[in-house]
Amino acid sequence: MEQKILQIKESALSEIEKVSSSKELEEVKNKYLSRSSELNNLKKGLKDLDVSLRPKIGALTNEVSKLLEEKIQIKYDEFYKEELNKKLASEKIDVTLDGTFNPRGKVHPITATINEIVEIFEHLGFSLIENKLSPEVEVEKYNFDLLNVPKEHPARDVQDTYYCNAAPNVVLRSHTSNAQVRQMLSSRPPVKIVSPGRVYRNESVSARKNNFFHQVEGLYVDKGVTFAHLKGVLNEFIRLYFGSARPTRFRNSFFPFTEPSAEIDVQCIVCHGKGCSTCSGTGWLEILGSGMVDPNVLRDVGIDPDVYSGFAFGMGVERLAMLKYAIDDIRLFFNNDERFLKQF
Ligand code: DAH
To answer: Cβ atoms within 10 A of the Cβ of 109, count?
Structure first.
């Protein structure tokens, strides 16, 4: 019996010595130390031995298992270190190597300008409305009729507005003001919203005009809204957008959907009012149309003009971006020339 145990010990030790990987070591461990191993079977058979022999043999089997466990653990540690070092060596990174260049896309200057305008109005308490309330393909009803634009108004002419051949009353919206009407039909005052988007006009393209461009529409309807609110909000917008208060001029104007109406000019940023080619010698640049919402418009969407009043505005995004970044040709925004776009 004793002989047998010593034999097991010898062969186990020599096998442990010979293993060359932690996987092999696992196999050896199983062979000599698992429940069904020879050594363990001997332990189980101890009870059948002569009582006088039991302590000695018992102690010997325990001693051998302990020794094997220790040896195996030492081997394990060696393998672990070795394998870790190998892994570290093979995965070593050279921090001085050039990285892979991942070109990053940029936000288009028009999108960036829209985001900036919207953020300012959000700061002034306006909410951005959902896209579905501001479709680019629109029916005349929302682009014109409900905005009090008479049937014979020149804006409705095909020379100004794009009509759909297949459906005569469908247009590409000529302004974002359709969003006002849709918003007022879908909610009750107080309404305080902005709605940015693309608009289309049948224009010949030049440095100053494109046949599509972008606007941000704004609308504030509540009890007691006055022209003073309109002035206050729009002057504050100009101050925040241009970074400092700029001289502005409220010019009397006319829109069928507002009464009274005003256009706002900002003093030319190029010549500071002296007159130059950017401002056609006037010293001023128009940035938006605005006014007090016409009582007819309120009535037609079911809002009582004796109880509520409101102001609205529509600003040209390209115009605002051109003023801020001194860009002299609107077509630059749409040509997708990387040399231009990269600058923003
Ligand atoms: N829709 C007008 C345009 O495109 C701009 C405008 C004027 C919008 C007055 C308004 C407004 O909301 O009240 O020229």
So the answer is: 21
Spatial contact of 117 and 315, defined as CB atoms under 8 Å apart: yes
**pLDDT over 80 (residue 278):** no
Point out which residues pair with 191 in neighbouring strands. Answer: 221
CA 328–ligand 1 middle distance (angstroms): 23
| Minimal-distance CA residue to ligand 1 atom 8 | 314
* Helix, strand, coil % over all residues of the chain, rounded to 5: 45, 20, 35
Read off the pLDDT of residues 94-120 as tens digits, 9 standing for 90 and up.
888 888 888 888 899 999 999 999 999
Q: How far is the CA of 243 from the centre of ligand 1 (A)?
A: 24
Q: Which residues contact 179 (CB under 8 A, 6 or more apart)?
A: 129, 133, 134, 193, 195, 197, 217, 219
Write the CA distances from 223 to 29, 55, 121, 188, integer angstroms: 86, 102, 20, 12
Count of other CB atoms within 10 angstroms of residue 169? 13
Quick one: 178 exposed, middle or buried, by C-beta within 10 A (0-12, 13-18, 19+)?
A: buried
pTM score > 0.85 for this model? no
CB of 161 shorter than 6 A to ligand 1: no
Average pLDDT, the chain: 92
Count how many residues are written for the chain: 344
Q: Please choose from 156, 192, 255, 315 the residue to mutate so as to test ligand 1's pocket, defined by most ligand atoms within 8 A of CB.
A: 255
Task: Tell me the C-alpha to C-alpha distance, in Å, between residue 307 and each of 20, 59, 68, 251.
Answer: 91, 103, 95, 27
The residue among 336, 200, 177 whose CA lies nearest residue 257 is 177
Distance CA 12, CA 6 (A): 10
Integer CA distances (angstroms), 73 to 31, 38, 316, 337, in order:
15, 20, 77, 67
Find out whether 238 and 321 touch, Cβ atoms under 8 Å.
no
- Report the C-alpha gap between 242 and 199 in whole angstroms: 24
Tell me the CA end-to-end span of the chain in Å, nearest whole number: 88
